[in-house]
Amino acid sequence: MPVKRKRAPRRPRDGAHSGTVDSTVDGTVDGTVDQRAGDRDEHDDLSPTSARGYEAFGRVMAALATEADFIESCRDLTWWRGADHGWHIEWRDGPYASEVAALLSGHVRASDGPLVTEKGQGSAGSAVLDVMGVRFELRAIDPMGRAALRARAGFWRLSEALDTTRRTNTRHPWEELLGG
Predict the structure, then answer these.
(1) Which residue from 15, 64, 81, 125 has the highest number of Cβ atoms inside 10 Å of its Cβ?
(2) CA–CA distance from 14 to each of 17, 18, 37, 38, 87 (Å)?
(3) pTM listed for this prediction
(4) CA-based nearest residue to 99, from 68, 59, 127
(5) Domains identified in the chain, total number
(6) CATH number of the domain that residue 55 is part of
(7) Which residue has the higher pLDDT, 116 or 14?
């Protein structure tokens, strides 16, 4: 038996509240100001502040993606948008939150200077940053630190795998694939 899907009513482009609207001076039925429409526009996903939040998130994730050590060492890397329209980034193992905050402070830059300011002293487990006016909360669960990760035996490192200047006894992955 097919199930009919209900569709939400479309919101008008001018941001007016959907419903019965009289053509009074302020556009509401009883002449009072509609606070819900103002609140919705203020926190709408299409607002300029939301666009800045997503741009800041994109810059942070791009900076983290350039660090192979960070991406390879973290398990369960996750992120979500908080109720205050800030971002929360959380990972298991990997570097300390203060190390990631320092890394982001160095990598997220504009042409005229850094876009990151640290809010307070970061610890091993958590750090708070302000990136382009957007709050980022970094949280490391059971962190090991970058020094311990580099010294850890058997830890696969992308930089070592791509270093073709150093000859090793083992065959490279592309030699295995090409039969060389």
Answers:
(1) 64
(2) 9, 11, 10, 12, 29
(3) 0.57
(4) 127
(5) 1
(6) 3.30.460
(7) 116
